[in-house]
């Protein structure tokens, strides 16, 4: 897959750290990687954005972003409030396609969930995936409440005829409760897509060298990793 679109079922669930892990595993497999942040919100002009954070953790990737807006809001809202031009799906797709011509893998990270709006016309990350004919990887929460939003996202991907690469749990707790452990089996069932990894809680706080050593072990072979989904399910399911 020359382009992989990465979204989540919400905000602050580990999307950027998951993107870094996917980039790390691909680099370890000998692939060149670019990371494109479609719209960065909530950071100033001189602050590090999500693409920069991926590069810090993963290593030698090409990090790029289309635009950034100062307030931590949905991209369309943030652009409007800042009096700035919004990002349009066509722009994102065109930039990703250019990067794909020069790299083995391009990771396009969205903002929030699949249907968060980029512009007044209602453009979303789903439109970017359609324009690129690229599969979508969905980062999900581990605990209570995740099944509903995961299934809703999966249904929307299918309704729009988009490729669904699978799921990654963005933050797996050190001491998972009963609901979290049950969700290991339930998540792929409600999504109708495979579970392709689980990142440990606090993974993004690891020193980069430790992150790069450990990251392939958090992801399944389909994402260039060594993580065994079935062994994880058996170990966690009560």
Automatic annotation (TrEMBL):
Pathway: Cofactor biosynthesis; biotin biosynthesis; biotin from 7,8-diaminononanoate: step 1/2
Cell location: Cytoplasm
Keyword Cytoplasm belongs to the record: yes
Residues reported in the UniProt entry to bind ATP: 12-17, 50, 109-112, 170-171
Protein origin, superkingdom: Bacteria
Binding locations of Mg(2+): 16, 50, 109
Active-site positions on this chain: 37
One GO BP annotation of this record: biotin biosynthetic process
GO MF term set: ATP binding; dethiobiotin synthase activity; magnesium ion binding
Keyword NAD: no
Recorded catalytic activity of this chain's protein: (7R,8S)-7,8-diammoniononanoate + CO2 + ATP = (4R,5S)-dethiobiotin + ADP + phosphate + 3 H(+)
GO cellular component: cytosol
Key words, A-Z: ATP-binding, Biotin biosynthesis, Cytoplasm, Ligase, Magnesium, Metal-binding, Nucleotide-binding
Location, primary (coarse class): cytoplasm
Record-listed substrate binding positions: 41
Membrane spanning residue stretches: none
Cofactor or coenzyme needed: Mg(2+)
Similarity comment: family membership: Belongs to the dethiobiotin synthetase family.
Subunit structure: Homodimer.
Function: Catalyzes a mechanistically unusual reaction, the ATP-dependent insertion of CO2 between the N7 and N8 nitrogen atoms of 7,8-diaminopelargonic acid (DAPA, also called 7,8-diammoniononanoate) to form a ureido ring.
Name of the protein this chain belongs to: ATP-dependent dethiobiotin synthetase BioD
Organism whose genome encodes this protein: Streptomyces capoamus
Native organism taxonomy: Bacteria, Bacillati, Actinomycetota, Actinomycetes, Kitasatosporales
Underlying gene: bioD
């Amino acid at each position: 897959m020359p382009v992989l679109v990465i979204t989540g079922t919400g905000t602050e669930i580990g999307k950027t750290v998951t993107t870094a892990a996917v980039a790390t595993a691909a680099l370890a497999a000998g692939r060149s990687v670019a990371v494109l942040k479609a719209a960065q919100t909530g950071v100033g002009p001189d602050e590090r954005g999500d693409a920069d954070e991926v590069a810090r953790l993963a290593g030698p990737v090409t990090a790029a972003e289309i635009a950034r807006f100062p307030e931590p809001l949905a991209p369309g809202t943030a652009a409007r409030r800042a009096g700035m031009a919004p990002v349009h799906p066509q722009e994102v797709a065109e930039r990703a396609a250019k990067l794909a011509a020069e790299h083995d893998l391009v990771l396009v990270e969205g903002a929030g969930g699949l249907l968060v709006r980029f512009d007044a016309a209602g453009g979303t990350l789903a439109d970017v995936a359609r324009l690129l004919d690229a599969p979508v990887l969905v980062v999900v929460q581990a605990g209570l409440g995740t099944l509903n939003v995961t299934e809703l996202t999966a249904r929307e991907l299918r309704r729009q005829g988009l490729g669904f690469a699978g799921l990654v749990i963005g933050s797996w707790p050190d001491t998972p409760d009963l609901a979290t452990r049950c969700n290991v089996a339930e998540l792929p069932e409600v999504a109708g897509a495979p579970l392709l990894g689980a990142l440990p809680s606090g993974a993004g706080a690891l020193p980069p060298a430790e992150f790069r050593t450990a990251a392939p072990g958090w992801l399944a072979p389909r994402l260039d990793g060594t993580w065994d989904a079935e062994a994880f399910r058996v170990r966690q399911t009560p």
